[in-house]
Every structure is written in C-alpha cells, then in structure tokens.
C-alpha cells in the first residue's frame, strides 16, 4: 500500500522487439517470475520507479505514526496503550526496513527524506486526515491497515526481491494490527455505552471514503499502471484491489452493526461483488496536492523532528570519531 | 506516614511509587512519538516506553490486589489525581531538548537499575519475578541513556553545553530519589526493599563515573534539592500530564469497556 500515482517515466510499454538485448533479458526474467536482486542489471526506469514507490511506502509508515501518536498519550487503558505503542514501534521498524530496501537501489535515505520535507514526494493521502476520537485508533487499524494489507499481500509477489521480502515480513505484523483495530471497534459496539457506539460510527463515516482512496485513481486515470504492471512492480490494478477490499470489508462492517456513508453500497448478485458509489476524486487530488486537513501539520512535524535533531546526530558523529581516534591512539 | 505504618501499608505505597514512576516516564516518552531526532531513536524511545508502561502494569496489578478495595490496575493508573500519584518528580519533568530527555532518563535509569537489582532478591516472589523481568529491560535502558549522556557531553561544543545545562537543571530532582523515608526504611528492615545507604552510594558512584567520562561537571554536593513527590506534592507538570493521560476515563466515567 501506501503508494499512489507512482511515476514510471514511461509513456507506453515497449514491445520485446523494441527493447535492447539487456532490456529483453530483463523482461524475460520478469515474465518468468524470477526475482530481480540488487546486483542484477535493471532498466533505469525500473530502478527509479521502485525508488519512488518504496520511498513513498517508507515515508507513509513514518508519517503514519503521527495520527496514532495523537492518541497514544490518551489511550484509555493500560492494555490499549501498550497495544498502540507496540503498533507505532512496528511502524517505525517498517519505515527503517523499507528505507533499507530502497537503499539497495542506490538511493540515499537522507536525500529521500529531504525531498519529503520539501514537499517534492508523496506519502499516502490517508495520513492527512485527522484522528478525532478514540475509535479512530480502531478504524485506522481495521480500514487503513486493512487496505494496506490488500495491497501488500499482492506486493509480496512483486518482482524486486528486497521489496518482496520486506512485504512478507510487514504483512504479518499488519494483519495483527488489523485484527487488533477491529477488536477495539467490536468491543465498543458490543459492550460500549451509546456515546462509545456513536464514536465508532462517526469514525467509520470519516474514514470510509479516504480508505477507498488509498488504492489510487481508477484504472482509466492511472497512466503509470501499465508499465508498473509489465515490470510486475504492481501486480493488480487499483480498481481490482479496491473491489477486493470492499468485498472483504462490508461483511465485517455489518458484523459490527455499523453502516458505511455510501447509499449506493449494495451486493450485486450478477457481478458477485459489491457495487459502490463514486469516489470524490476532487478531494483525492486536493489532498495529494497538499490541501488535505493535516498535510501542513504532518510535514511540519516531521521536518521539525529531523531539523531539530541535527545537533543530536552531529554530536553522535563527533563522539564516534573521538572514540575511534582514542582507540587508534591506544593501539 | 504515621509511625504505626504496617509493612503491608508500606509495601502498597512503595508499589505505587514504582508503578507511577514507570507510568509517568512512559507517558512522557509517548509524547515524543513522531518527533525523535532520528528514526532509530523513534524505535528506541517507543521501546523503552513500552517496557516502562508494561512494568507499570505489573506493579499496578499487584498493588490493586494488595489494596483490595475493588479498584483495578486501570483505576489506579487512570482514576487517581495528582496528589495521590507517587512518581518521582524527575520523571514528570518536560521532555525539553534531547539532552534533557536523556539526562532525565539517565538519572532515573541509574536509580531504577540499582533498585530493581535489589528487588530481584526480595522474599516476596511476586516482587522478585516482576523485578527480574524489569531488571533485564532496565539494564538496556541504562546502557543507552549513559551512552547518550557521554555522546552529548563529549560530542560537540553545542551538545556539551546542552548536556551540562540539562544536568544542572535536573539535579534538584535527584535528591528525593535516593533519600529514604519511612516507607523505604520499613521495607528495608523487612528485607524487601534496597538498603537506602547502599542505593544512594551506588547511584552517586555511577552518576559521577558517567558524568566524568562525559567531561561534564557534577553539581556541588550541597546543591539544593526539591522534594515532595513521596507525599504527593508534585511540580505543576503532573496535573497536565494526568489531564491528558486520563482524559477518556474522566470524560466517559460510565464506560465499562474500551
């Protein structure tokens, strides 16, 4: 997940005949489902697309800590507090892990983070929405991590080896987060007061549509998808993944006893899928452009953390050098 | 504390001190979520916070059993006001810059480490087992915070200045941590708690050693000390910490589940 509208730099997909011998060999490996490893030759477009996608994913893990950090200081019980802290720690770990996968492609973590802070690169639009009540900690786990998993389960088969392996590890932890999130909502709906139940419905109302937007624009508006699919960086189209997510989520929604803010959501016997209403794409593009409720705050917080920590990192470097010097002098 | 304090009363009080200090420092570290100076530090801070809140839960659970007045571990954490909280003044101090965050951590970790090392040997099995698990975690906390104090002290001119300022500002909260009151004396005599004199000597020894290695100047022996946490007289910060931490439990008192 967490990657929307990733540029590939390709206007159209080349045919095998149009490719150079290296490109052809590369594409045949992809077609044969052989994983590409860091030391293998790869087209520049493939490398750059992956760097964009993995860095976007890593940035999303890190920025995604903020909406949860907003409630970790207010978690209502010891158990919920510990769960949320563990989840946040996992996300920091995912971020580190993904940045490492990205660095195997020759990119530099600090440079990519600078680009994020300068507003040059994206992270998932979902994290630009505020977390306004406690139930949001359940909904984020259930819907946001849920949407991420749908995407990431497919990405376990992505063609780039280090990314694929990162996804396998991350998926395990995300599934756990999703179950925990759903349990928060289920407990509130089953044993909560009227006010707590309203909290849950209000939370779902706010996160429903933004979660569907996480899969990116519809296929006919997704110019980069074709090349990404040919390289098997992407394995399923945005609309396919969105439909999968909706189909698996609606029964869970009904089990909670809640509703979605979509009057057109209903089972279509003929298609064997749920039909759903039109997404507000204007809102999606606005948020991507920086005009979401929290875009400004999220980036400011991250930038202040890293800029404000410059003296800390500088001190650590200076100390390490002095220690090294001492050891050399002693030797 | 009256002179007629029983060992049982002392123990309940002491467990709340341990739990509350863990809880409040864990809470302070939670405030830093997403704001650490590096992603690795993000992980480490949350890791330490998780350990502390986990330890707090263990102590609260035991305290709730001994107090036995119908209150749960959650009630003890989320339904007591500041004057009933017994955490050290040190841990409620604001995060400040990273030198303050690490200085506060180091002063507390050093106390925590020697305290747990003693509690591991307590004849009360419950205490010994909670302490044994915690001691392993705190050994790492102490190593990490000592390392940061040294990095800052002996790093750059700026970091040295910041670290010295943090040490000087936080020093006044160290006194009460290593001065035993009736509660601690009672438990020591009962063979449960640490030897107060030994604890103070160990703490001072380690702190001096680390500060010296960090090229920092330890504050004077007769520096003025701020006291009060052991009888519920806190700094102004604690009220705000609890207002945030206990918000949901206070706003929805009828809620039976979360």
UniProtKB/TrEMBL annotation, chain A:
> What GO biological process terms are annotated to this protein in UniProt?
phenylacetate catabolic process
Naming one, the record's GO cellular component terms include: cytosol
Task: Write down the superkingdom of origin.
Answer: Bacteria
Pfam families xrefs: PaaA_PaaC
- GO MF term list: phenylacetyl-CoA 1,2-epoxidase activity
Transmembrane intervals:
none
What's the name of the protein?
Answer: Ring-1,2-phenylacetyl-CoA epoxidase subunit PaaA
Q: What is the lineage of its organism?
A: Bacteria, Pseudomonadati, Pseudomonadota, Gammaproteobacteria, Pseudomonadales
UniProtKB/TrEMBL annotation, chain B:
Q: Which SUPFAM superfamilies match?
A: Ferritin-like
Q: Which GO terms describe its biological process?
A: phenylacetate catabolic process
A GO CC term? cytosol
Coiled-coil regions listed: none
Q: Which InterPro entries does UniProt cross-reference here?
A: Aromatic_CoA_ox/epox, Ferritin-like, Ferritin-like_SF, PaaA_PaaC, PaaC
Which Pfam families does the annotation name? PaaA_PaaC
Q: Which NCBIfam families match?
A: PA_CoA_Oxy3
Protein name (database record)? Ring-1,2-phenylacetyl-CoA epoxidase subunit PaaC
Native species of this protein? Answer: Marinobacter segnicrescens
């Amino acid at each position: 997940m967490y990657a929307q509208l990733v540029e590939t730099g390709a206007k159209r997909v080349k045919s095998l005949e149009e490719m150079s011998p290296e490109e052809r060999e590369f594409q045949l490996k992809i077609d044969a489902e052989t994983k590409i490893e860091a030391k293998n030759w790869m087209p520049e477009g493939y490398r750059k697309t992956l760097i964009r996608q993995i860095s976007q994913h890593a940035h999303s893990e890190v920025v995604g800590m903020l909406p949860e950090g907003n409630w970790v200081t207010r978690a209502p019980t010891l158990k919920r507090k510990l769960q949320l802290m563990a989840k946040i720690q996992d996300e920091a770990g995912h971020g580190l892990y993904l940045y490492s996968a990205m660095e195997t492609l020759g990119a530099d973590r600090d440079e990519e983070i600078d680009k994020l802070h300068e507003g040059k690169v994206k992270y998932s639009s979902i994290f630009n929405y505020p977390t306004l009540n406690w139930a949001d900690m359940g909904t984020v786990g259930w819907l946001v991590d849920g949407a991420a998993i749908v995407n990431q389960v497919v990405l376990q088969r992505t063609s780039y080896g280090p990314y694929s392996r990162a996804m396998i590890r991350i998926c395990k932890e995300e599934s756990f987060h999703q179950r925990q999130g759903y349990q928060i909502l289920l407990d509130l709906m089953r044993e909560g007061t009227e006010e707590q139940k309203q909290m849950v419905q209000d939370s779902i109302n706010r996160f429903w549509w933004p979660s569907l937007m996480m899969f990116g624009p519809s296929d006919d508006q997704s110019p980069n998808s074709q090349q990404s699919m040919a390289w098997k960086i992407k394995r399923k189209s945005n609309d396919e993944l969105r439909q999968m997510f909706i189909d698996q989520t609606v029964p869970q929604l009904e089990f909670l006893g809640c509703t979605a803010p979509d009057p057109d959501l209903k089972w279509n016997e003929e298609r064997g899928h749920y039909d759903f209403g039109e997404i507000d794409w204007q809102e999606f593009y606005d948020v991507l452009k920086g005009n979401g409720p929290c875009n400004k705050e999220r980036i400011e917080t991250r930038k202040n953390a890293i800029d404000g920590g410059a003296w800390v990192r500088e001190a650590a470097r200076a100390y390490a050098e002095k220690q090294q010097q001492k050891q050399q002098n002693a030797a | 504390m009256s002179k007629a304090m029983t060992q049982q009363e002392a123990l309940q009080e002491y467990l709340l001190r341990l739990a509350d200090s863990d809880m409040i420092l864990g809470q302070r570290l939670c405030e830093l979520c997403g704001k650490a100076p590096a992603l690795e530090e993000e992980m480490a801070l949350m890791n330490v916070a998780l350990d502390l809140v986990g330890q707090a839960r263990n102590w609260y659970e035991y305290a709730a059993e001994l107090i036995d007045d119908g209150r749960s571990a959650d009630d003890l954490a989320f339904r007591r006001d500041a004057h009933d909280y017994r955490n050290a003044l040190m841990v409620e101090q604001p995060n400040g810059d990273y030198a303050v965050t690490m200085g506060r951590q180091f002063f507390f970790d050093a106390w925590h480490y020697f305290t747990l090392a003693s509690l591991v040997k307590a004849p009360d099995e419950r205490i010994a087992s909670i302490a044994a698990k915690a001691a392993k975690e705190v050994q790492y906390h102490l190593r990490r915070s000592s390392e940061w104090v040294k990095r800052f002290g002996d790093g750059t001119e700026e970091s040295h200045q910041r670290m010295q300022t943090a040490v000087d500002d936080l020093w006044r909260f160290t006194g009460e941590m290593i001065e035993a009151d009736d509660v601690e004396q009672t438990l020591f005599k009962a063979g449960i708690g640490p030897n107060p004199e030994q604890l103070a000597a160990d703490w001072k020894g380690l702190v001096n050693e680390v500060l010296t290695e960090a090229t920092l100047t330890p504050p004077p022996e007769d520096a003025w000390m701020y006291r009060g946490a052991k009888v519920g007289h806190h700094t102004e910060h604690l009220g705000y910490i609890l207002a945030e931490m206990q918000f949901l439990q206070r706003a929805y008192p009828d809620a039976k589940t979360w």
